[in-house]
């Protein structure tokens, strides 16, 4: 059974949404991707949506919405995106913090950098899952 991975931050509108989209795009055969937060936003970050569409041809506005932690299934792995405030808590067998800076309000270069960093970290996560480097027992 594929492990379920939750990408979480407070607002679930930018970094966690990008991670969910890219996780589904590149690694859906290795793990299931979800994202959630503790506060809802009416829309996901439009700069993030535009950059993900430009770089990866994914329309997050069609497939994604801001979700609360209670709206996703129980997960095996929690990835905190990097909160400079109190990060949400979600129980899981494995928890790590990627410590990503929020690009909200910054220029496209920062959003692209964030997307590429998430892509690299997802690749590493997928490899660790495949090589049983993350204990999910």
From TrEMBL:
Instruction: Give a yes or no for keyword Zinc in this entry.
Output: no
Going by the UniProt record, its keywords in alphabetical order are: Arsenical resistance
* InterPro entries the UniProt entry points to: Ptyr_pPase, Ptyr_pPase_sf
| Pfam family membership, one | LMWPc
Q: Which Gene3D superfamilies match?
A: 3.40.50.2300
Q: Does the keyword Lipoprotein apply?
A: no
Q: What are the residue boundaries of the Phosphotyrosine protein phosphatase I domain, all occurrences included?
A: 3-128
A GO BP term here is: response to arsenic-containing substance
The protein's name is Arsenate reductase
What species does this protein belong to?
Clostridium cavendishii DSM 21758
